[in-house]
Amino acid sequence: MEFELSPQTPAGERFVKLAEEHAPFIAERADEHDRKASFPFEAFDAFHESGLLRATVPEELGGLGVTSMRDLAIGLGRLARGDGSVAFGLNNHLATTWTIARVWREGEVAGIGAPAPASLLARIARGAMVMACVSEPGTDPRHPMAEVRRVPGGWELTGRKSFAPLTPAASLVFVLCR
Questions:
Q1: For residue range 103-142, what is the model confidence (pLDDT) as tens digits?
Q2: pLDDT below 70 — which residues of the chain?
Q3: If 27 and its partner were Cys, which of 52, 82, 108, 163 is the partner (CB 3.0–4.6 Å)?
Q4: Alpha-carbon dihedral of residues 119, 122, 126, 128, nearest 10 degrees?
């Protein structure tokens, strides 16, 4: 008996279909990127063109409107059939965007508005790619050692993040710090 998870929402169905369409394209290039230790820019360019990068942006802000983590996981799993590394990197972007969208929706429901998240989501809908740097040696996300402090003329960030999978292509970077 074969069993495969299916998306549960219309937005999830669109996302999974797009992920399945991209999987063969990224699979063709996976070995070469692994051998050369190169970043798959062409995959992320294709994701931008198809709307995959906007999957977790709310529809009313220009995205696909995926809110279900189950649907997100299913689509990323289908994409990973082509290249697990690419799916892993895309997850960093989509999970971060999903979180921003959740903050925006909660602000809207509470009637307080959320202009900063709305602005970020609009930028993502137009093509910005987000990367979140949260991990660092010797601590956990609730106790970051990286520190930002005001210095003459601006801010200084010190610390050492150990994991930043989208560095070559990200246009927005979020750093967990104190």
A1: 999 999 999 878 889 999 999 999 999 998 888 888 888 8
A2: 1
A3: 82
A4: 50
Alpha-carbon distances of 106 from 51, 72, 100, 103, 109, rounded to whole Å? 24, 20, 10, 5, 5
Q: Is 167 in contact with 131 (CB distance < 8 Å)?
A: yes
Read out DSSP for the chain?
Answer: --------SHHHHHHHHHHHHHHHHHHHHHHHHHHHT---HHHHHHHHHHTGGGTTS-GGGTS-----HHHHHHHHHHHHTT-HHHHHHHHHHHHHHHHHHHHHHHHHHHTS--HHHHHHHHHHHTT--EEEE---TT--TTS---EEEEETTEEEEE------TTTTT-SEEEE---
Per-residue tokens: 44:
């992320």
